[in-house]
Specification:
The structure holds two protein chains of two kinds. Chain A is an all-alpha fold. Chain A contains four helices and no strands. In chain A, 57% of the residues lie in helices and 0% in strands. The model of chain A has no long low-confidence stretch (mean pLDDT 77). In chain B, 69% of the residues lie in helices and 3% in strands. In chain B, helix 1 packs across helix 3, helix 5 packs antiparallel against helix 6 and helix 5 packs across helix 7. The mean pLDDT of chain B is 94. Classes of the chains: A mainly alpha, B mainly alpha. Chains A and B meet through helix 1, helix 2, helix 3 and helix 4 of A and helix 1, helix 2, helix 4, helix 5 and strand 1 of B.
């Protein structure tokens, strides 16, 4: 499901979907910490599924086009450059 | 950038390990990153790290990252975290397990939850084409 945007075109972070993703991740980490488990990076099942069901396939549009737009914006809007400037002072 | 290229590559390789494939979008991102950071050997170093990590178990990867995190320059922890996020989202999708991994990376790097959360919010706001999956 695509994230809702505000009228200005910005992502509306008040949407349920995004907030729920973040809250679930925070709760899961809190539970791990409580169980004294060290943080682990896990295999992404959705990334594999994305490829398997064709959402990232050349024949489908959504994923490929969005990724291409992001790469284009990264260059045109210098978003990567700006982030690097901000985070690697 | 003060953090060693091999250490940066360990984190990017872990993002690839989680994703399961070093795809064209990630390669393009690494190309852009190498240019911006002026690290011409980044792609080569990363490919070596990917090979070294691909057979690792979850626990081995955790130990590897824990050791690498100790060598990250203190002022670049959030930067490395941001690069892990961008690597994971290079295919334009952000799903639950990627958000979980993002917070795991934050924890490993010693970036506190609120700072990590702000970084994620800002990234999501800026990347208008990002597709959020439930």
């Amino acid at each position: 499901m695509a994230l809702q945007k505000t009228q200005s075109g910005k992502v509306d972070k008040r949407t349920k979907e995004y907030k729920e993703l973040v809250e679930r991740a925070k709760k899961a980490r809190a539970a791990q910490k409580k169980a004294a488990k060290k943080p682990t990076v896990k295999k992404s099942t959705t990334a594999a599924k994305r490829r398997a069901d064709g959402r990232l396939d050349q024949r489908t549009k959504e994923g490929k086009e969005a990724a291409a737009r992001m790469a284009k914006a990264r260059k045109a809007q210098k978003s990567l450059k700006n982030r690097i400037k901000k985070l690697f002072k | 950038m003060k953090t060693d290229i091999k250490i940066l590559s360990s984190f990017l390789a872990a993002a690839v390990w989680a994703d399961g494939e070093y795809d064209e979008f990630e390669k393009e991102f690494v190309g852009d990153l190498a240019e911006e950071l002026e690290l011409p050997k980044l792609a080569e170093t990363l490919e070596k790290e990917i090979k070294a990590t691909e057979k690792m178990s979850e626990e081995e990867l955790a130990n590897n990252l824990e050791a690498a995190a100790k060598k990250v320059d203190a002022g670049e922890k959030e930067g490395i975290l941001s690069l892990c996020l961008q690597m994971m989202c290079a295919d334009a999708f952000l799903a639950q397990d990627e958000v979980d991994n993002f917070f795991a990376f934050a924890d490993i790097l010693g970036v506190d939850e609120e700072a990590a959360s702000t970084l994620l919010d800002e990234y999501v706001e800026e990347e208008e084409d990002l597709i959020i999956e439930q």
